[in-house]
Amino acid sequence: MLLEWSFAIFSGLTLGMAAFLVAAGLTLVFGILKILNFAHGTFFMLGAYVTYSILGTESASMAAFLLATLAAGVVVGGAGWATDLVIFRRLRDSDYHYTLIATFALLLLITGLVKIIWGLDFRLVRPPEVLETTWFIGGIFIPAYSVFVIAAGIVVFLILDFGLQRSWIGKTVQSVARDPWMAEVLGINNRVVMTAAVVVSFMLAGIAGGLLLPNQSLSPALGDVFLLLAFTAVIIGGLGNVRGAFIASILLGLIESVSTVLLPDLPGISIFVALIVFILVRPQGIFSGAQ
Amino acid sequence: MLELSNIDTFYGESHILHQVSLAVHDKQRVAVLGRNGAGKSTLLKSIMNAGTTVKGSVKWRGRDVSKLKAYQRARDGIALVPEDRRIYNHMTVQENVAIARQGVSRSVAMTEARAILGSIEMLSTLGERMGGALSGGQQQMLAVARGLAAKPELILLDEPTEGLAPVIVENMAADIISRCDANQIALLLCEQNIWFARKCTSHVYVIDSGRIVFDGSWEQFAEKPEIAERYLAV
Hints:
The complex is a heterodimer. By secondary structure, chain A is mainly α. Chain A is 73% helix and 4% strand. Chain A has helices at 2-33, 40-55, 62-91, 96-118, 144-165, 168-178, 180-185, 190-212, 222-237, 242-262, 269-281, and strands spanning 123-124, 134-137, 140-143, 217-218. Chain A has a two-stranded antiparallel sheet with strand order 1-4. In chain A, helix 1 crosses helix 9 (222-237) and helix 2 packs across helix 9 (222-237). The model of chain A has no long low-confidence stretch (mean pLDDT 90). Chain B has one domain: P-loop containing nucleotide triphosphate hydrolases (Rossmann fold, 3-Layer(aba) Sandwich). Helices cover 37% and strands 27% of the residues of chain B. In chain B, the strands form two sheets. Chain B has a six-stranded mixed β-sheet, with helices on both faces. Chain B has a four-stranded antiparallel β-sheet with strand order 2-1-4-5, covered by helices on one side. In chain B, helix 4 (106-118) packs across helix 5 (136-149). Chain B: This is Branched-chain amino acid ABC transporter ATP-binding protein. Chain B: Belongs to the ABC transporter superfamily.
């Protein structure tokens, strides 16, 4: 029983960190531009496909895997720049409904393009050689790849949190997010800051796609799988709050994982219950307001 | 230095300023008096191109800047201190000042911010305090300090005395005059406090319902008491 719980907690942490990797960019762009990007999951998927196109399905070296993931981040970041230029920039002063519709249209467009380029087939991509190992520690099997995902989630969180809270650039970005009018009057070029935020957000989606690729069945539906979890984490964490998204992702991962032990006949329902409970009890999220 | 010629300003469909012309010369200190809603804040926003739609000519140092955005005008030497202060709560007092200094490294901006804060008695020991933790008077001084940190050639002050204790207002007047003189900064001050405006400036405009209704020296203003009675009396 203890082993079962230990494994559930470890799996929950892995799932939570995977969700955070996707949620990070989503909450970042909401925090700064107040845009809820419905298409975020498809750019995550695009990152996975780009990584797959570079690596193929066989195990690659760790260096090749990380470089391919970085390349995916750059490609998807470029797509973010184009998205900002064509869509977000035009809608910055519009009602949020227009942005929701526009990003939903973008979701359909990117999904369609992915189907045209890579087809509808499911593909399985093996992790890098060094991450194919499984360790047997304290009576439970721990896949090296899961440890890698947890570590990647923590590293991304620390970089984002430090970048936003401690660095001068982060404080400037926060100033634009909190009071764009004053920021502009102080001589800050808001457009550049916002475009940079979109590019970083999309890069995070692309990098998440690359990092999580070996764990998934790669198909045009990949984006949907994590988008729901990421959206839930962003809502529970407090819209636009990176720390909130991090904590909420861990919570959701643990809730989902533990519920498979407690309620094996009702898979997947616990996350929706958690979302409903949070919306009823604390609609502003764990941390209210953008970070 | 700054020359507005027949500008009309709009918020969406609302027409706020009507054919306003105004000039501020090099190092000159100018006041704009008017009641609440007369168009004073809109005038300053129009000069900065901050949230308004402006038709007409705005010239800065002889150059038409109508197409320049607010951040470009700020970098070009115009600083606006808004009425509602808009201090950043996520930053310390020192960072709030430093962020206004564009085009230099962070360390230079912070050093300059420390120097400015050190010269303001009310803020000299508060550099590490968060911006949101200051009193109203302290926040107002911080907003002025932030405006000065940009090293502007023209500073636009929007009702800096609002909500401040009389003793603070008196000190602020002396402080603004000495800083503008020392740094050769021109001043455009929008105020309802006639005493303060007169103390700080040499030329005065009166604005009412979005139109300039008086333009002259303080002596000329004093010669026409009906102007104050008609356009400034509460």
